[in-house]
Structure formats: C-alpha cells, structure tokens
Design goal:
Arc Repressor Mutant, subunit A, 239 residues, single chain
Amino acid sequence: MLMNDAMDVLLQGKQDTRDYINHTALRDIDVVRWVLEGEVDAFEVIMRRYNQRLFRIARGILRNDTDAEDAVQEAYINAYLNLKQFSQKHSFVGWLTKITVNQALSKKRFAVRKDNLEESIGWDEAKTKANVMTDDILPDRLADSNALRKLIEQAIDSLPEEFRIVFIMRVIEQFSVRETAQALSLEEATVKTRQFRAVRRLREQLDKMYDMQINQAFSFAGTRCDRIVNKTLNQIRNL
C-alpha cells in the first residue's frame, strides 16, 4: 500500500511508529488514510495536532476541565470509529470539531438531567462568582500573569454558553466565521452577532486587560495532552 512521496520517505527505515509520529508535515487526509490502512498509532498525529483546540472548545461548553477532557477523548473514539465516513469534501478539522461539539453538548445535557438542575441556575451562579472574584482581586495581584489569565478564564466562563463557545472558536482558536457556523449549525450572521456581544461583555469586565492576555486563556498543559493521547490510544487498541 503506497502513500504519497512524503509518507514513503518518512516510513523508510522506521522501526517504531513513534520515530515519525510527530511529523508536522503530514496532511490530515494522509494520516487518516494511514490509520485506515492499519497504522492505529498514527492516530496520535491527529490528537497531538488538535488536542488543545478541541479541549478549549469542549471546555467552553462544559466549563469543567475534567469533563472537557472526557468529551475530547470520547470525540476521538467516535471519530476513529467513523473514519471511513469522513468525506474529503469537507475539512477534517471541521468534521472533528463538530463531533467534539456534539459530544460536549450531549455530555452537558446528560449532566443536567442527572442533577435535575435548570441551566439558568448555573449561569446565575457563574455570574455571581465572576462578580465576587472581580471585586476581590487586588491591583498588585493583577500584575501576575497567572492571576490575570485566571481572571480572563473566569470571565469567559461567565458568558452565556451561546456567546462563550462562539468566542472561543472565533477569537481564541481563530476559526473562520464559516467554519464556526458549520460546526455549530448556525447562520454566519448569528456567529458574527454572538462574537460581537461576547467581546463587548468581556471588555466591560476586563477593559484593557482583555487585549493583553486573552491568547493565553485556557493554557493546555503537556501532561493533559499526554493523558488524552494515552487513554484514547489504549481504548482504540482494545476495540
């Protein structure tokens, strides 16, 4: 089974998938084809490439690190099981993002049913916590980048879900309006409106701090990336 020339070069003399698993020159579609041909460990390329992006999106919906990690892992399993259904007419990252969004939303709906809580209660509590947190932060603490990043993350968490997920996709992850609309099943005009309102709300809370530190929000630790990769590959190998 032959791949493209770049793949052939990578495979020459390689005894272990990990010798070339992190190569960034591979196209998504080449990796997908590689996995479908039996190289299960090559799926790590996909996970390493999109872990941070998908985690941020899932967390934007769930507002909980652990739940977001679980949602991303479940989305990867779902994507792996349905790789044959992926159509090259669409972007792979868009397809993967939509699976993640659906998984996170499903997880959230299940949690709401399980706890028998109204979504509005969660929003009111988050808003109250954000207001208290903002009042309690002292000026000298704002000089610390970690404290400032935490402030930004909590401010983002306080946004209504429909604004929060659009903001994360458009501003933090730099999805285009069209990609965001497709992933969330929204009109492009709606994406633009929600992004505008999200930014306006955040600026009201953070003022100039917004522009200084927003790209550092929801930093993705290497240990979390490794954990998602290892847990997902272990599950895939046992399928």
